[in-house]
Write a structure and sequence with these properties.
- The strands form 2 sheets. Strands 2, 4, 5, 6, 9, 10 and 11 form a 7-stranded mixed sheet that branches.
- The chain contains no helices and 11 strands.
- A hairpin with a 6-residue loop joins strand 5 (46-51) and strand 6.
- The protein is mostly beta strands.
Length: 113
């Protein structure tokens, strides 16, 4: 059974930083790309960062490029999202996703101004 569990969300002030983690079980990170998807209140889910199975390639949405960094520890089946210079528009529920088939429960990030 595949399980993805996010952690690390919380309340942070504008300009602050957070690091999200996603612990996976029942799947092998070094076989598939992994994605962070977020859903802001009243908006659709949007992919914001992805990393290839071997970590050799990354993708960032323009809204987070230069501020967020995705990384993975494949030996421990853990995905990370380092978020710096946070803005109020980064407020959302953040999901760890594998193949857009397996989703974690999400972790709330709230950026206060």
């Amino acid at each position: 059974q595949v399980q993805l569990v996010e952690s690390g969300g919380g309340l942070v002030q504008v300009g602050g930083s957070l690091t999200l983690s996603c612990a996976g079980s029942g799947l092998t990170f070094n076989m598939y790309a992994m994605t962070w998807v977020r859903q802001a209140p009243g908006k659709e889910r949007e992919p914001i960062a992805a990393i290839s199975w071997n970590g050799g390639a990354t993708y960032y949405d323009a809204s987070v490029e230069g501020r967020f960094t995705i990384s993975s520890d494949n030996a421990n089946n853990t995905l990370y999202l380092q978020m710096n210079s946070l803005k109020p528009e980064d407020t959302a529920v953040y999901y760890c996703v594998s193949r857009f088939r397996y989703w974690g429960q999400g972790t709330q990030v709230t950026v206060s101004s």
